[in-house]
Specification:
The complex is a heterodimer of chains A (112) and B (113). Helix content of chain A is 0%, strand content 63%. Chain A is mainly β and 112 residues long. Chain B has no helices and 11 strands. In chain B, the strands form 2 sheets. In chain B, strands 2, 4, 5, 6, 9, 10 and 11 form a 7-stranded mixed beta sheet that branches. A 4-stranded antiparallel beta sheet of chain B has the order 1-3-8-7, with no helix packed on it. In chain B, 37% of the residues are buried. The chains are: A mainly beta (112), B mainly beta (113).
Chain lengths: 112, 113
C-alpha cells in the first residue's frame, strides 16, 4: 500500500464546476502539502496545512488528522486550473529530518 | 527573486557519460533535496542535505552523488549515466525540512541513450 494515495488519478471537468481531489496517507504527519505541476513541468507549493482549512483565492484545502485524509477543492474551475495536483506527507527517513512522500498526482483537465 | 534555480532544463547523454545537474537557492534554506519523477510514480527522493557539509541518501541514491559545500548550492552528479536514469529531475529547498514550505526548481528532463 502506498503511503500517500490520491484520487481520482484523472479528472475532467467543465469550466465553472466545483472540483474535489482527495488524499489519504498512512504515515503520521505534522503537516501535509498540496502542490501544483503545470504542463510546462514546474512544481509550485499551494498549501501546507496541519489542521482545519486553508483558502487561497478559489482553492481550499482541508485536513482531518484523525482520519488521515485531506481534500483540495477548486471552486468555479477555469481552464487555467488544468494541471497535475500532488499531495505530499512528511515522513522520517533515515536521518532525523525526514522528507516528503509524494502521491502519484491527480491530472485535472478543465474544458471551456 | 530567483528562488530555486536549476540547470540545465534539458540534457541528452550517452550511456557511460557523466554530468552534473546544478541547483542553487537564494533563500538561505538549510534543507535541500533532489527528486526524480518517472511516469506513473510519485516523486522519489535521491539525496538530501540538512545543511552545508551534511548530506544523506534517499530512496533511490544508486548512481548519483551529491555534495553541499555552501548553503546555496546542491549539485547532483551522475557518475556513469545509464538509460534507467532517464527521468525528470527536481531540486527543492525548504527552510527547515519537510514540515516547512517546499520550493522547487523548474526541473531537468534528462534522456540517456
Amino acid at each position: 500500500k502506498n503511503e500517500v494515495e490520491q484520487s481520482p488519478q484523472n479528472l475532467t471537468a467543465q469550466e465553472g464546476e466545483f472540483i474535489t481531489i482527495n488524499c489519504s496517507y498512512s504515515v503520521g504527519i505534522s503537516a501535509l502539502h498540496w502542490l501544483q505541476q503545470h504542463p510546462g513541468g514546474g512544481i509550485v507549493s499551494l498549501f501546507m496545512l496541519s489542521s482545519g482549512k486553508k483558502k487561497h483565492g478559489r482553492l481550499i484545502a482541508t485536513i482531518n488528522i484523525q482520519e488521515k485524509h485531506s481534500s483540495l477543492h477548486i471552486t468555479a474551475s477555469h481552464p487555467r486550473d488544468s494541471a497535475v495536483y500532488i499531495c505530499a506527507s512528511p515522513r522520517n527517513y533515515g536521518g532525523s529530518q525526514g522528507n516528503l512522500i509524494f502521491g502519484k498526482g491527480t491530472k485535472l483537465s478543465v474544458k471551456p | 527573486n530567483a528562488g530555486v534555480t536549476q540547470t540545465p532544463k534539458f540534457q541528452v547523454l550517452k550511456t557511460g557519460q557523466s554530468m552534473t545537474l546544478q541547483c542553487a537557492q537564494d533563500m538561505n534554506h538549510e534543507y535541500m533535496s533532489w527528486y526524480r519523477q518517472d511516469p506513473g510514480m510519485g516523486l522519489r527522493l535521491i539525496h538530501y542535505s540538512v545543511g552545508a557539509g551534511i548530506t544523506d541518501q534517499g530512496e533511490v541514491p544508486n548512481g548519483y552523488n551529491v555534495s553541499r559545500s555552501t548553503t546555496e548550492d546542491f549539485p547532483l552528479r551522475l557518475l556513469s549515466a545509464a538509460p534507467s536514469q532517464t527521468s525528470v529531475y527536481f531540486c527543492a529547498s525548504s527552510l527547515q525540512g519537510p514540515n516547512t514550505e517546499a520550493f522547487f526548481g523548474q526541473g531537468t528532463r534528462l534522456t540517456v541513450v
